[in-house]
Structures are given as structure tokens and as C-alpha cells.
Amino acid sequence: MVYIEAGKFTMGSNDYKDEKPIHTVILDGYWIGKTEVTVGQFRQFVEDKGYKTDAEKSGGAYTWTGKDWEKKKDINWKNPGFKQDDNHPVVCVSWNDAKAYCDWLSTEKDLPFKLPTEAQWEKAARGTTKSKYPWGNNEPDNTLANFKWMVGKTSPVDSYSGGASPYGLLNMAGNVWEWCYDWYDSGYYNKSPDRNPTGPDSGSNRVVRGGGWLVDAGYLRCADRAVVRPSDRGPNLGFRLSQDNR
């Protein structure tokens, strides 16, 4: 976990409607994972709790067939459709699965682990700069992030140190989309509080951030917001942890 000091940062962009307006947000200090949660870490949770993911309980997960997304019964975190080792980010996990992991780890460590809010995630990715990407404004390439099918699957969570955020966080762009705590609202920035925003009180979809190994460069931007149903799971969906310092 890496500590992010209290203070303000610039959130949003003028690129898309749901990223407007650009606004100043003030956050209390918080902790966030240097890397995404790994297959090995998630396995400890599953074995300790006897936990079954949504994919295992409800017909599998989505995989890319080369032409379209298709749900297959045998696709889940143990078999995402490509080879992983314990140092790869766990994928094919729903928002519900990620939340269950946070709850388990909070009990195990007697510390309040959770998913980061959108604001916490974006500050951790961008820092107090106005950079387009975690590493700056230069366009991504295969030394900075895993994206656009360059590898064809996930990479180990400690890869791409050249693309680290200002706080030293890895793979904030590319590798996997990362679940955030917030419900999604396309117009939320017009009404969000300027201090410690946590998203709408309710909704039907959750926010994911950071892009993944499947996407084009535009989705790797710090301000990019994507919307996914909390029960969805796929080979490009993972998460990282956070802790509030209050």
C-alpha cells in the first residue's frame, strides 16, 4: 500500500461529456495498492472462505472469441482463457467479488480495506499534475503499458515501471480495468462535493478505471470513466485496494 497525502488535485477532462467539468477535488490522506490484487492473493481468500465467485455460480464469464464477446461456463478467475501465474492480476471477478475480498481482508488484518473511490483512483493515477496519462502526456507504447493486444493477455502486476504514476503505482493504465467503489452517473461531476466525493447514493452500474490489455490508448487516460454492471466479469476486469485514513 502507498500513502497518498491529503490535498487537492484536478479531476476530469474536456474530452468527453461525462468527464466534464474539470474541477478541483480535496481529498483526505488515504492508502492505495501499489499494484492490482493478484491471482495468488485472491486464491488465499477463496481457499480460506470457500468462496465461489459470480462467474462460478452463474454461468461463467465473458471471453473474446475473436469476433465478439461470449459468455462461457468454464471461464472464471482460475481459467480466464489464457495462462496466468500467481503474480498476474486476478480477473473475471465482479464488483461483488472484489467487495467480498475487501471485507475478508479487513477482518483478517483488522484494517478497513475497500475499493478506491473514483476521486481516489484518479488522484493516485495523475497526482497533482494535469497529465493525460500516469507517466505524463506522451502517448503510450509497449514500454509504458499493456494495451491494445500487445501481449494478448494480462501482464504481471509489477510490470511497466516506466509507466508508473507520480506516486509509484504500477499499471494504473492498461493491464486490467479496475473496479471503483462508486455508482456511475454521467452527470455526477456537475453536483459532486468538492471534498471526499464518494459517488451517487445508488445506481445500476459501477465505475471502472484504467483501461486494460484489450483497449486502445484513449481508454488509458487518467480521466477516462467506463461503466459496467456490478455482476459483470471478464478477462480484463480486476481491482486494487484502498484504505481511508480516517
CATH topology: paralog of FGE (formylglycine-generating enzyme)
Structural class: alpha+beta
CATH homologous superfamily label: paralog of FGE (formylglycine-generating enzyme)
Side-by-side strand order of the widest sheet: 1-4-12-7
Using the 3D structure, state the CATH architecture: Alpha-Beta Complex
User: How far apart are the termini?
Assistant: 16 Å
The CATH C-level name is Alpha Beta
Report the mean per-residue pLDDT as an integer.
Answer: 96
Number of domains in the coordinates?
1
Order of helices and strands: EEEEHHEEHEHEEEEE
List the quaternary state of the chains: single chain
Unreliable parts: none
**Fraction of residues in β-strands:** 15-25%
Distinctive features:
single chain; 246 residues; alpha+beta; paralog of FGE (formylglycine-generating enzyme); four-stranded antiparallel beta sheet; four-stranded mixed beta sheet; 12 strands
Write structural notes for this entry.
The two termini are 16 Å apart. The strands form four sheets. A four-stranded antiparallel β-sheet has the order 1-4-12-7. It is built from four helices and twelve strands, in the order E-E-E-E-H-H-E-E-H-E-H-E-E-E-E-E. The mean pLDDT is 96. It is α+β, with helices and mostly antiparallel strands and 246 residues long.
